[in-house]
Specification:
CATH architecture: Up-down Bundle
Number of domains: 1
Distance between the termini: 60 Å
Low-confidence stretches: 97-110
Helix content: over 70%
Order of helices and strands: HHHHHHHHHHH
CATH superfamily: Fumarate reductase/succinate dehydrogenase, transmembrane subunit
């Protein structure tokens, strides 16, 4: 084993290293969510605009771009989850009376980070199967030539919409704590910036929550796209 490999392993085994991995992968996922939401909201611009966006994604770098993004996203997700679990176990093993008191006083969102993360992971897998792999033959036929119509049809199902709402609610809870934690791990949180960081974290979570939910709610409950 080379010296660089040993150093990387030692870094990943250290508490600081694990926290940085969680923070950096979390940051990558946060940025992805912002970009993904921006693209998804094009559905309100109409069939042509959304289909052109989907066509661009699937043909970027001769079709390799979307797969590079998917592999990178899943790698970030896996690393984020694995090292969050390792840190949680490490903290439990080293817990003191002071730490127990701090845990009691911690926001509820921070206490369910792992469970919300696992649920979000399950949703991501389902979401990929639903809209990317298109295990539903009806969606598969539409998805080839009309991604806009595929999304409209996909959110006609009440169970799909309900699962989407639950997952987005947990994601919002996860983000409201997680974004602030990124700032703290990267050493950007101070007494002066704490309130501003808390506001940014919660505002970002609300924007992501409202943005993503606006699509299935508009389709299922307000009939968006049904007349097209």
């Amino acid at each position: 084993m080379s010296a660089s490999t040993c150093s990387l392993c030692a870094f990943a085994k250290s508490s600081i290293g694990r926290k940085l991995i969680v923070a950096l992968t979390g940051l990558a996922l946060v940025l992805f969510l912002a970009g993904h939401l921006s693209g998804n909201l094009l559905i309100f611009a109409g069939r042509d605009a959304f289909n052109e966006y989907a066509h661009f994604l699937h043909n970027f770098l001769h079709g390799m771009g979307v797969w590079i993004a998917r592999v990178g996203l899943l790698a970030c997700f896996a690393l984020h989850l694995i090292f969050t679990v390792l840190l949680t176990k490490e903290n439990k093993a080293a817990r003191t009376a002071y730490a127990r008191e701090a845990t009691v006083q911690a926001p509820k969102s921070s206490l369910i980070m792992i469970w919300s993360g696992l649920t979000i992971l399950a949703f991501v897998v389902y979401h990929i199967l639903h809209f990317t792999v298109r295990i539903d033959s009806g969606l598969a036929d539409l998805g080839k030539n009309d991604p806009w119509g595929m999304v409209i049809l996909g959110f006609q199902d009440s169970i799909v919409v309900l699962f989407y709402i639950i997952a987005m609610t947990l994601l919002c809870s996860h983000l409201s704590h997680g974004v602030a934690s990124i700032f703290q791990t990267l050493g950007l949180r101070t007494k002066k910036t704490a309130s501003a960081i808390k506001f940014v974290s919660q505002a970002y979570a609300i924007i992501i929550y409202a943005g993503f939910l606006s699509i299935p709610i508009a389709i299922k409950f307000f009939g968006f796209g049904s007349s097209n």
